[in-house]
Amino acid sequence: MTSGRLRLRLAGLVLLGSSFGLPVGDFKINRIMRPIPVPLSDLIGTFGVILVVFIGGVALWTLAKSMSSFIKRWIVWGLALVPGVLIFGLSTFIPAGVEFNPEAARMALGAGTAGIYLAVLLAITSQPSSRWLIVVSIGLPIGLAVLGQIPMIGIVKEYQNYKSTFNAEFIRHLTLALSSGVIAILPGILMGYWAYKYPKSSEGILSVVNLFQVAPTLSLLGLIMIPLSLLSKQFPFLKSLGISGIGFAPAFIVLTLYALMPIVANAYAAFKQLDPAVLESAKGMGLTSRQILRQVSLPLASPIILSGIRTAFTQNIGNAILAGLVGGGGFGAIIFLGLSQSASDLVLLGTLPVVIMALITESLFERIQARLERQLRGAHD
Amino acid sequence: MAKYIKTWGLTLIYGLSLVWWLADTSRIKAQLVEWFGIGSPLIERTPLSTLVWQHITLVSIATLAAILVGIGLGLAVRLSRSEELESLVIRFGALGETIPSAAVIALSVPLLGYGNEPILLALFLYAILPIVRNTLSGLNSVAPDITEAAKGMGFTEIQQVFKVEFPLAFPTLIAGIRTALVINISAATLGATVGAGGLGVPIIAGIRTSDPVLVLIGSVPVILMALVADRVLRSITPQRSIP
Amino acid sequence: MIKLSHMTKTYGAITALDDLSLEVRNGECLVLIGPSGCGKSTLLKTINRLVEPDAGEITIHQKPIHDYAPEVLRRQIGYCIQGVGLFPHLSVSDNIAVVPRLLKWDEPKIQARIDELLTLTGLPLSYKTKRPHQLSGGEAQRVGVCRALAADPEVLLMDEPFGAVDPMTREQIQLAFRELQRRLKKTVLFVTHDLEEAILLGDRIALMHRGKILELSTPESLGQSTPNETVNQFIGADYALRILRRSTLEDLKLTAVQPQTEDRRLESTSSLKEALAVLLESGNQRVITVIDHQAYRVDVGDIMAHLQAVRYG
Question: Domain C2-237, what fold?
Fold first, then answer.
């Protein structure tokens, strides 16, 4: 199996670099002090590093050879546990000759840890059916954090400090991203269908929707705030509903508009690629327009439409960060808070969940799409 | 002829609007303040033209770097003739696109500090993705008969890629550059959240003080620039006449 | 039983139908043929109202088609097109069942009908669960025919249905269709640009040109009524040879003989065109055929006589 060899070679290189060259941790006496880099050799000694690299190299080499999948399974499982173990080690590490207060001090994750994690991922994905192992490799550190086993790690400390805020913003962020995406689905598909049915309007519709994507999100946010605040001043009942110039409302509207573009564009393309012979025969057989849409056009267009919805959601999860600028909360609030305090671990606390959510959404939709396409194609003989 | 006028006409309108906006800023601002009824004519610390210049500089540096590196990477992957490498690069790219740009900017601050660097990095990374992808797909889309003919005529691997596939991949490549550039022009505004210059500055200031005029002052040039860039690049895309 | 009167349709400067009138008899297969752009497809589509004429009226069994809502009308007419248009996301049996389900037939009746149709068109019952993309061109077209016949319509409209199939499969499917039509006796309006196909399948042929019908007659008599330059050009000087395909040796008046060993034998079901070819190359050798255990001699003259009778009779 030559596929995967490349990844393993890359994994080896990255492992080498991370173990010797990059610090796996950055020890900070307190939040704002300059970090003391902690290379892997501090944790397990120089000899330990050589040993680890050797074992790692052997593991990768074994994966590259065509050996029994049983052995390989064990190896990738072991590799998946490495990040968790490493982080645990970092958390329990006490740097020599440094005076610090355990309350204030923290261990931030360094570039070396990222590198080792990358190497582990490369190695895992070089083998088939690795999806769950990726989850494990992420899940173990998270699990350890939840169980309170890695209290010294910077991100965990920040989480402890901002626990309630974190949870609140998590929900806000998800609500914002998902609801705006969901609202955009039906209008988006309808607009795409309209552009397809009336080709003269297609250029107009597509360029208007495109304008929303070309304009910077920030501009849209800024511009939406004004009429909203004016409206809520005029109609106080809106304010009681929570709709005003700042907060949830402007972010929601902007995100919905942004979600429209991929959905409309994909819906339009999806309907356009329908086989005209299929549509003509459907009409000739006596299906009404609505029956054709429901029984023929929509099912056949659904994979591409779904792909547009997937883009919209993934995009929105990222864009929702900007809601933090207008008081809409979400992880953006945490990120900007961290930026203003120059607390990189806080920034990380806000960014990582967003990245993970985006990746999960993407992966989830991919599977749904694959299943949909298989259903449409039918089981192959 | 009419089509010619249509394409360049629009570009001209956008361009002229942009110039007018920059030249007559204070008057426009005063007018807008009058219309909106809110917002105070702030004494701005940096004139708009400086901001525009900063913005253009940021975008140009990042995009240019992305073009060089992106095309280089694409060619290197193609020359390696390794399917594994190609699929790895594409998967990596797809992954990268899933990660929100705001997150990239936020993450690069601890590394690079405040200022222009984070946004440069983010713009660079984001521009690379469509460029590499389009380079690869453009090179791959060259019909196999053409590459076979080239091989039969005695081209070496390298000559084939540079003299045959690359020129034919040009239109797709330009399309990728266009996408990257237009997105970057808009995305550069985010830099202002972490201390960069550019047209994001008045926009953020406007958001923070609920001043629509400031937001507009910053947004209009950005949108116009993006539209101009899009039109110009569309028109210089060579039409592929080969079936 | 289908009466079209004074059908007119223009698309801008192009006249697709020019005051055209036509009557299709019950149980006949009437073929519309002509060069591209003569309006034959347009005429076909006015019957199931996919095209609305500028002027003219159509009645089926004396009932104007405008009395029905278009969808209701179409569910009573079978429609086959060149691209077939099977729904790719449905199985073969679900494709066939579309119209019956629209008409709210009971499921058992639908299933029985599907089996019946598949057998009629010569497809194995195992094909029911197949998907369109798994079928060959000819098989797909046969399923298309099943689908058109599913609700047992009286009328079938076919628009170059066998055009997208390769020539060998096309001949097979044409013969199969001819058999089917002989059995079911549907009223069929068939559009094609292939003269051979028209001759093989049509009870009557309507030759169209620029929105008008130049001649309407049986295949044998085509070109005989009024001498028309365009008609003669279209059917070609060798038309007589082509219509020989319609008859077999069994249609001839032959003389009975005693078979001899040097005789060349022909199947009685051979078309006259085949027979003529064999006769021309057999030279002095005798050619015989056997019908009901009696041998008959076949002569070029017999074929000539038949052709004369059929053409000028």
Answer: Rossmann fold (3.40.50)
User: Best-predicted range by mean pLDDT among A64-78, A218-232, A319-333, B15-29?
Assistant: A319-333
Residue B241 belongs to some domain of the structure:
no
How far is Cα C161 from Cα A177, in angstroms, rounded to an integer?
51
Shortest alpha-carbon distance between residue C77 and chain A (Å): 7
Domain encompassing residue B87: 2-39+46-236
**Contact assessment for residue B207 and residue B148, using Cβ atoms and an 8 Å cutoff:** no
User: What's the total number of domains in chain B?
Assistant: 1
What are the CA-CA distances from residue C55 to residues A135, B222, C20, C24, C309 (Å)?
69, 57, 10, 19, 41
Check which CATH number belongs to the domain holding B200 and give it.
Answer: 1.10.3720.10
- Per-residue pLDDT band for A380 (boundaries 50, 70, 90) equals very low
Instruction: Parse chain C into domains and list their residue ranges.
Output: 2-237, 247-312
Residue in chain C closest to A297 (alpha carbons) equals: C87
Q: Residue C1 contacts by C-beta under 8 Å, 6 or more apart in sequence?
A: C24, C25, C26, C60, C61, C154, C187
**pLDDT per position as a tens digit, A213-261:** 788 888 888 888 777 777 777 777 777 776 777 778 888 988 999 899 8
- Greatest mean pLDDT range, A173-182, A247-256, B5-14, C226-235: A173-182
At C206, is the secondary structure helix, strand, or coil? Answer: strand
Note the pLDDT tens digit of each residue in B181-194.
Answer: 988 999 899 888 88
Residue B14 identity: Y
Interface list for chain B against chain A, based on CB atoms closer than 8 Å: 36, 38, 82, 84-85, 88, 95, 98-103, 106-107, 109-110, 182, 186-187, 189-190, 192-194, 200, 203-204, 206-208, 210, 212, 214-216, 218-219, 222-223, 226-227, 230
Identity (one letter) of the amino acid at C288? Answer: I
- What DSSP line would sit under A22-81, residue for residue? SEEEEEESSTTSPPEEEEHHHHHHHHHHHHHHHHHHHHHHHHHS---HHHHHHHHHHHHH
Residues 6+ apart with CB under 8 A from C88: A275, A278, A300, A376, C131, C132, C133
Fold of the domain built from segment(s) A163-377: MetI-like fold (1.10.3720)
Residue B242 lies in a domain: no
Beta bridge partners of C208: C213
C135: left (phi over 0), alpha (psi -120 to 50) or beta: beta
